[in-house]
Design a protein that fits this description.
heterotrimer, A alpha/beta (326), B mainly alpha (292), C mainly alpha (291), A: 326 residues, alpha/beta, Rossmann fold, Alpha-Beta Plaits, 2 domains, 4-stranded antiparallel beta sheet, 14 strands, 37% helix, B: 292 residues, mainly alpha, 12 helices, elongated
């Protein structure tokens, strides 16, 4: 079966509570397409880890169904486990055998992941080399730094070459350089090896850079889902255009722009180096850019006009705040 | 809570006075009790364990000849009472010492030891606090074990003077083992391991302190090891008190046991605190206090 | 990504799903971890020697006639040595599974195992195998110390050794289900050591590890409980072979073996079933990692 997707239909996890049940995951419908790099965001306690653990077959859902790689997570759990690689990076490297070396941790994992010995041997050496663990490969993990432990966990996750990767906080505890290399690796795994990747991270910059689509989960529910552009439009009724001018006489340009009927307001008008930046909220993006360009042409030297989109951090905060306040 | 409210609360003037040792001790006891209560069924297992041990030696006593015990000065020759007292009190101190070293080990593992030792509470208070609940709990189990032993056939002489004498020995027993516990805890802090030391101590005391048999059966070199351990004197004192009815006023042997225990405590308590302090400072210098 | 690295992940490799291999992997990994605990091995060896010494000194107070009446020779040291050495071995095997489960849950590695393709029974058998091997070292050591250090009169002729080895195998198999059952308890309640310690004390008491079982006859409920313990039969066969030199030609030994087989056949599937129940429960409760 070549379906490497993740699909949930109304999946729910409830726990008994003192007065009423605690709903950790609340009727979530999600589809991660085969070969997609998908981000899952949410504040602490939102239900991300519970959802991922259900997909890993570690937790049984109360309601709903899910399929991973085309296999039902309850009825075909064993097959699901043959299809996934799960990294629980939030443990900061504690989910390793500290009394084994990195090499022995990987060898052990090869056994339990059914990786044939000859294949495992080659992959282990290649992974140790790639993650810069070769020199310390035979020292006990208990003597490793947090970053090294997380790299061992990354290597372990990749060792069985699973088509679907569930990466829960893959760069936590890593120094900046290693984090950058890890992100490149994640992209390569997705683009060159076509792995389906579900990524969670508190590093929103990372999610924004890597993921094609993002779901935001809060209080157990998906409250937003889409590409960056789609998510941005959820929080911005106004679209914003940025105009970059040469020279420092931006005030006159600002006044011209303000006169245009499709400009709601100018939010920024300031010097930027040897030029000038004007940001204006417009009612219609499609026509705003050519009309502003026409209005300024001839009198001002325009370096560029483009739409600006809010960053994921702003999107995330606004959506979760809106959701929390009902 | 918004940050303004937090700032406001923190700006309120307070007088930071030192918590008394008694208040800290209470805080530790309450903490340990609440944690222990989340594993309620441990109590059941502890009770069953000691009950089985006592029952086992009830039956073993039926194949033991009394002559040896009588020759050693335990006039009734009653092996069951002899063993019951030995097991109950040795389990008591072993559980307490084990409990302390395991507690320290747990705190290293979870990281809370660094939190406490970087607070206004010094390591002496920490050691005392960490021991208290375990000794209190051990006392309850001890009383239960002795009660069961008496119920199934143990014979002891209970008078106000024997009870008072027994209480003195029990108190000295606890104090001596608090010192041993502190020393073990120091070693645990340093080497990040606890159980081998604690279990080694358990077996050694069972071998040479006369828990299961009178000391006269041991070769001289093991007897001398036994003389270095507080449990040896405590058990002898407790047995002579409750089996023979001896008291401090009429027994030179009990007086010797008493002096030996006091001497042990005078030497060991400051020594053990020094060992813990040394281990603690060494871990601080090496930066390994939080390692596990 | 490194071009060489990527080539290792572009091949389509068929997984090796052999359960034997999975079991071996668990056994190998756990044994390697054990070998790093050198201090433990030293102190455990010391503790084993000391415990034999304790029973030696205890034996000096026992009348030989009291033991002779039980039918196992006249030496209390031999009597108790076998009772305790094999009980400790059994405890080692049972405790191994549940204790390691407890550690793995605490350390977070259990979830990694549980989310991998390994079958749970391979995991359990691999843990048990490691327990058997390490326990064997201590058990053989205890017997050797007892015989060569304290002159316990035991029979080590080939026929007696063969008989006792067979009894050992069936003793372990008859108790393995119990060990797996306790591991199931650990999954749900996250604590094992209090349970296994209590179980081992029960076994030693009701099987007469330290006193002749005839003493229980005055208390019928205790005597009945003793008849229900598989270790009672294992201990009887072990004492008969190692103290009296009885072999498989003895009806008593064959009877004891038959009882152990029956227990193995009943308890092993029950243990596995209850473990699965416990595993499903923690997946329902979402507590695969909490402790």
């Amino acid at each position: 079966m070549n379906d490497h997707s993740i699909e949930t239909i109304g999946i729910t996890k409830e726990y008994p509570g003192k007065e009423k049940p605690l709903v950790a995951v609340n009727h979530v419908d999600l589809l991660v397409r085969s070969g997609e790099l998908f981000g899952l965001l949410g504040p602490n306690g939102a239900g991300k880890t519970t959802l991922i653990k259900m997909l890993c077959t570690l937790i049984l859902p109360t309601e709903g169904t899910a399929k991973v790689g085309g296999y039902d997570i309850v009825k075909e759990a064993a097959k699901v486990r043959e299809t996934i690689g799960w990294l629980h990076g939030e443990t900061g490297g504690r989910a390793l055998y500290w009394r084994l070396s990195a090499r022995d941790n990987l060898r052990f994992y090869a056994y339990i992941q059914n990786v044939p010995s000859d294949v495992a041997r080659k992959r282990i050496e290649a992974l140790l080399e790639f993650f810069d663990l070769k020199r310390e490969a035979d020292s006990l993990v208990k003597d490793y730094s947090t970053g090294m432990k997380v790299r061992v966990m990354l290597a372990r996750t990749l060792l069985p070459n699973p088509p679907i990767l569930l990466l829960d906080e893959p760069t936590v505890g890593l120094d900046a350089q290693t984090a950058i290399e890890t992100r490149k690796l994640i992209l390569t795994l997705n683009r060159e090896l076509h792995k389906t990747i579900l990524l969670t991270s508190h590093n929103l910059y990372e999610v924004e850079k890597l993921c094609e689509r993002v779901a935001i989960i809060n209080t157990g529910k998906i409250v937003a889902l889409g590409t960056m552009d789609q998510l941005a439009h959820l929080i911005h009724e106004a679209k914003t255009v940025e105009v970059r001018l040469e020279g420092t006489d931006g005030e006159a340009a600002t006044q011209i722009i303000q006169q245009l009927d499709l400009v709601r307001r100018v939010v920024v008008s300031e010097r930027s180096g040897d030029g000038w930046i004007i940001r204006a909220e417009v009612s219609d993006l499609d026509s705003a850019i050519p009309r502003i360009a026409n209005a300024l042409a001839g009198n001002f030297r325009i370096r560029g006009i483009s739409e600006i989109r809010p960053h994921l951090e702003e999107i995330f905060v606004k959506i979760t705040e809106r959701n929390n306040h009902g | 809570m918004e940050s303004d409210k937090i700032i406001q609360i923190l700006q309120e003037p307070t007088v930071r006075s030192k918590t008394t040792l008694a208040e800290k001790a209470k805080a530790f006891i309450v903490r340990d009790f609440k944690i222990y209560w989340t594993y309620k069924f441990w109590v059941v297992f502890d009770v069953i364990d000691i009950a089985i041990l006592v029952a086992t030696y009830y039956f073993v006593a039926q194949i033991i000849t009394p002559a040896r015990l009588v020759a050693e000065g335990y006039s009734s020759g009653d092996y069951f009472t002899f063993a019951m007292l030995g097991i109950a009190f040795s389990q008591y101190v072993q559980n307490s010492v084990h409990g302390l070293t395991e507690g320290v080990r747990d705190e290293q593992w979870t990281g809370t030891i660094e939190t406490i030792l970087s607070s206004a509470t010094n390591y002496r208070s920490y050691l005392l606090g960490a021991s208290l609940f375990r000794f209190l709990y051990g006392t309850i189990i001890l009383v239960g074990a002795l009660g069961l032993g008496l119920l199934i056939g143990g014979k002891v002489i209970l008078t106000p003077t024997t009870l008072a004498t027994g209480a003195v020995f029990a108190l000295l027993l606890v104090s001596g083992h608090l010192a041993i516990g502190a020393m073990s805890a120091g070693i645990v802090v340093m080497i990040k391991r606890g159980d081998p030391i604690a279990w080694g101590f358990t077996w050694l005391t069972q071998l040479v302190s006369g828990v299961f048999y009178p000391l006269g059966l041991l070769p001289w070199y093991l007897k001398w090891v036994g003389f270095a351990l507080p449990l040896t004197y405590s058990l002898d004192g407790i047995r002579r008190t409750f089996m023979n009815g001896e008291t401090f006023f009429d027994s030179a042997v009990l007086q010797t046991d008493l002096v030996a225990l006091i001497a042990f405590i005078i030497i060991m308590v400051p020594l053990s605190l020094q060992v813990f302090a040394w281990a603690y400072r060494r871990s601080q210098r090496q930066g390994t206090l939080g390692q596990y | 990504m490194d071009n060489q690295l990527i080539t290792y992940f572009q091949d389509n490799v068929a997984p090796d799903k052999s359960e034997v291999r999975q079991t071996w992997g668990i056994f190998w990994g756990q044994l390697k971890i054990f070998m790093t605990y050198r201090t433990w091995v030293v102190t455990d060896t010391f503790n084993t020697i000391v415990s034999i010494a304790i029973y030696y000194f205890l034996s000096l107070q026992v009348q030989p006639s009291q033991i002779a009446a039980s039918g196992y020779g006249t030496s209390y040291l031999a009597f108790s040595l076998i009772g305790i050495a094999f009980a400790n071995y059994l405890w080692f095997c049972i405790n191994r599974i549940s204790h390691s489960m407890q550690s793995e849950i605490r350390e977070g590695t259990f979830e990694t195992i549980a989310s991998s393709p390994i079958r749970m029974r391979s995991y359990l058998f691999g843990q048990a195998a490691r327990g058997f091997l390490v326990g064997l070292y201590y058990m053989v050591g205890a017997l050797a110390v007892g015989v060569y250090g304290f002159n316990a009169p035991l029979h080590f002729e080939p026929a007696a050794l063969l008989t006792s080895s067979l009894v050992l195998v069936f003793m372990v198999l008859s108790h393995l289900g119990l060990g797996i059952f306790i591991a199931g308890i650990v999954l749900v309640y996250k604590q094992a050591d209090p349970v296994t310690f209590m179980v081992s004390l029960f076994m030693e008491f009701f099987a007469g590890a330290l006193f002749p079982l005839q003493l229980l006859s005055k208390y019928p409920p205790l005597a009945i409980a003793s008849e229900l313990m598989p270790y009672t039969y294992a201990l009887d066969a072990l004492r008969k072979s190692l103290i009296q030199g009885a072999t498989l030609a003895s009806q008593d030994i064959l009877f004891d073996l038959a009882v152990l087989v029956v227990y193995a056949v009943i308890l092993l599937p029950l243990g596995l079933w209850s473990f699965n129940v416990g595993y499903d429960r923690i997946r329902t409760e979402g507590t695969t990692s909490s402790y």
